What we know:
The protein is an alpha/beta fold.
Amino acid sequence: MKKLSDIGTIKDILSRYGFNFSKGLGQNFLINPSVCPRMAEMSGAGEGVGVIEIGPGIGVLTQELCSIADKVVAVEIDKRLIPVLGETLSDFDNVKVINRDVMELDLNALIEKEFKGMKVVVCANLPYYITSPVIMKLLEDNLPIEAITVMVQKEAALRICAEVGTRQSGAVTVAVNFYSKPELLFGVSAGSFMPAPKVDSAVIRLNIYKEPLFKLDDSKKFFTVVRAAFAQRRKTVLNSISSSLGLEKSVVNELLLKSGVNPQARAEKLSMEDFYNISTLI
């Protein structure tokens, strides 16, 4: 099995396939040999477990997942990497590579087809530019999965794992906490990648609730309110919601008071219950 965290090995493989890194796809390959084994182990992969990996790159994390999981399905958008993965994963018979955009995939259908009878987890080194959309798709698609373990930009990791109602929290914090219990696992320095990004990364794990935090008649409305509240985070929740949703301030003010929320507060100070109460009344 090729040591895919070795710079010489990476350069040799990419050179033979005429591969150049795509800035548009946020491609940075891991060269720190300690990261992927640790990430795979903490993802929940193991006997009786199937893993969905998003953006396998040249397969460094994929190899580790294949070594401990029953089956791995890796979704790679870059068709140039498919023959590369064919070589780097040739030692494993428990992996399937799909050349698709994960945002366009029916993941429920994929899980039903590929992982019958297995527990399922997601594990991925996500490109920075698509972190939030991918995480929200995984959560909002109501997938039968146990956990999502992903490497993201450190700043994004801190926001996702922040406590709702604190200064670091944002709309994504509320959304993630609605579906799961997030935890920050460990940091990864910029020097762990080739080419090295300008910022550090971190690995987080989202432990999926069996049931969402609240039962909502209209979850779309709930998240619309959350996004509206944080849309202009320097403004009061009254101004941000009224401006973002095009509602009269007097109407929003009354709704906030009925919800037990101070109209002059900022969104970062609101609790999950506050957002729930506002969305049920608005």
